[in-house]
Write a structure and sequence with these properties.
Length: about 150
């Protein structure tokens, strides 16, 4: 299975291509310098940067992996938690691509994804592709308390 995963939950735009559990490409565009002068992430600026960066980052991930959009078996994106407008950029782009390609769309929460990656028990069945490897760089999830989300949808 070949998957394109998109992440835009906060201040980094990332796209990864994974085939059968192997990360073929993982491209990240950071906004750290943009937000430095404000002392934190400015949601509107983050959203605008995602709009600028998402297509080039996704194109780069596909080029590096030598995978075309037609080779994809599914498209995934972060659906929360995060900055609402920033999430919308990646979520709607991924859903649109999946729709256009007639492929499944998989939406993940950052906390759910982190609990799976760390090997915590899941309360419901997961998709069949290998979730033990990172789909993208979900750096904002590294310190998220996973235990608080296990029994939520």
């Amino acid at each position: 299975m070949t998957l394109l995963a998109i992440e835009t939950s906060c201040d980094e735009t990332s796209a990864a291509v994974i085939r059968n559990g192997e990360i073929l490409a993982n491209v990240v565009s950071s906004q750290t310098r943009l937000h430095e002068e404000y002392g934190g992430v400015v949601p509107e600026l983050a959203t605008r940067e995602h709009l600028r960066n998402l297509l080039p980052v996704t194109r780069d991930a596909l080029n590096v992996s030598k995978v075309t959009a037609l080779d994809l078996d599914a498209v995934a994106a972060t659906r929360g938690p995060g900055l609402p407008n920033a999430l919308m950029v990646g979520l709607k782009a991924a859903q649109s691509l999946a729709f256009a390609l007639r492929k499944p769309f998989l939406g993940f929460t950052i906390t759910r994804r982190t609990s799976i990656r760390r090997g915590f028990p899941a309360s419901r069945p997961e998709p069949i592709f290998p979730l033990s490897s990172p789909m993208c760089r979900w750096s904002s999830a590294a310190d998220t308390p996973c235990w608080s989300t296990w029994n939520r949808n």
